Amino acid sequence: MKPAPKPARRAAAGMSIAAxxxxxxxxxxxxxxxACQKQESAQGGAATAGASAQNAPAAGGGTLNLYxxxxxxxxxxxxxxxxxxxxxxxxxxxxxNDEMLAKLAAGAxxxxxxxxxxxxxxxMIRRGDLQPLDHAVLSNIxxxxxxxxxLPYDPQHQYAVPYAYTVTVIGYNDAALxxxxxxxxxxxEAIFDPxxxxxxKGRITVLDSPDEIFAAAFYYLGIDPNxxxxxxYKKAAATITKAKSCWAAFNxxxxxxxxxxxxxxxxxxxxxxxxxxxxxxxxxKQDFHIVSVLPQQGATLAVDNMVILKSAPNPKLANAxxxxxxxxRNSADLSNLIGSGAAYKTALDxxxxxxxxxxxxxxxxxRMSSFHVLRLLPPEIRQERSRLWTEIKL
Amino acid sequence: MGGRRVPAWMWIASAxxxxxxxLPLVVVVLFSFNDSRLNATWVGFTTSWYGKxxxxxxxxxxxxxxxxxxVVASLASTVLGTMAGFALSRGxxxxxxxxxxxxxxxPEILMGVALLMFYVxxxxxxxxxxxxxxxxxxxxxxxxxVVRARLAxxxxxxxxxxxxxxxxxxxxxxxxxxxLILPGIVAGALMAFTLSIDDFVITFFTAxxxxxxxxxxxxxxxxxxxxxxxxxxxxxxxxxxxxxxxxAARVAPGILRINQ
Lengths: 394, 260
Known about the structure:
The structure holds two protein chains of two kinds.
Chain A: H1 7-51, E1 63-69, H2 75-85, E2 88-94, H3 97-105, E3 113-114, H4 118-127, E4 161-173, H5 174-179, H6 189-192, H7 194-197, E5 204-206, H8 210-221, H9 230-244, E6 249-250, H10 255-261, E7 266-270, H11 271-283, E8 290-293, E9 299-308, H12 315-325, H13 328-338, H14 353-356, E10 371-373, H15 379-393
Parallel strand pairs in A: 1-2, 1-3, 5-6, 5-7, 9-10
Antiparallel strand pairs in A: 3-9, 4-7, 4-8, 4-9
Chain B: H1 8-31, H2 48-54, H3 57-89, H4 94-105, H5 108-121, H6 128-152, H7 156-164, H8 169-197, H9 201-206, H10 214-225, H11 228-251
């Protein structure tokens, strides 16, 4: 096909490639230097800002790298911290615990404080990712509400203190249920008893999460949600399969929007999603409210925690930040922003009435015991559960 | 020219295909002007989401990072990829083909994790530089393929004729080879730019604690707080991409034609 190139041409080709590579490499080098300088000047700026603040509080100065969920801290809170400690807060975000764990496991560093959910804290402690919190700095530790003071994955707060919590509850559209003459739900039977749930056939969604659905089915059946018996899991799977025909979808991503739009009338979901869905519905001047209810049989509590990584570049500032967020006002800012629960006593004074009146998140004291924290499952049960979950989804 | 008659079913099939491709984009653009947080029902016209977007420092910083990375990565990978394309079209060394194509065939997540581990090994701080280098690493392959295809379709005898007429090799390259393969190079550069600006997986692993890009930012928002602000920024990105393609077509007409 192609004639064998003559020696002269071969050399010529070599030369042009050599010439090109020199140009190419120099352009590349220039561009990279430019990019580096840009970044360094940004970091340098932060460093000088910190250095000029020698007389700030002991832990002040420098940059705090916060690896957080998106929209999970109020901007005012950040500003207050930055002023008080003469520091800069840089946030990057993840949208899933597993995503964050995978990235850290691969060796990513540079983060000071991370906000993992309970189960993930357990995994991070086991992996040795975390450094102990400096209790000498954590003057606000006594502010933790008693129900959150000794959570099973780290009862002594050696590595973790609560950040905020959500509860997995039932949310419903009050006007639509009234019109369908469906009594307001009070317990999990509204989701799992086909005789009841099928009255709203096609108008119910549940979270696309085996953790949450199995736990809810266990509450309905009166079984301990942390059971490790394969038989219990089979019973729950049978219940879920029977109820499934009444549900419109397994949906974790858009159910709050669907409810705000009025397409879905009842859902098994997270309390703060229902809060945000209701806020959206009111903003869109819908003629209904989305109401959350804490089912009488109990519900799953998910606590997000603050932890400091072993590799944290600025552990002093990190401890100061953790203590700062345990302060009532700062903790309350977040509840007011997204309707999550606050785990700190003095926060309750700062939370707006429309948030605090949500009985599913801030239930009366005597119902606090209906919150349950899910533990990591032993591998063989996990496997059995995945198998059952696949069967359910098929 | 008359041309052959295209049967009706072909029109219908292509109409459906294009509808499927472009309708979602139309919806995204439309809802970026919707006066409601819900992406569900049309309430009224507003440009407030754009106002909000331009006041959102984090989003703007991420957009700026994305642009910077995409420009640097597409320029660098175009130069490197063009050289690789030349080497490939000459078929030496044999292993080169494998080396160039591997990043395309490899699952992105594998490449992301591998790059992250590599940077950690080098004790390199993750940030704009690490993201840019990673983007160059995978964009080079795409540019190389496009350029090689262009070179394969080029008539070698044109270069030989130039040489016979006394042109030095650099001169022949500048006046004959380069103009002939330019559409391929520009197409490769555009491809590299788009791949870089919307890459998520590799960026996710190689981004550090200080810098975020637009796709990372949007993805983390979708789960908790997706607002029409995301639509607004997507609309702007769409406009930018269209502008780029139009500009490229102006600068080098015929670029968007796949065959000569």
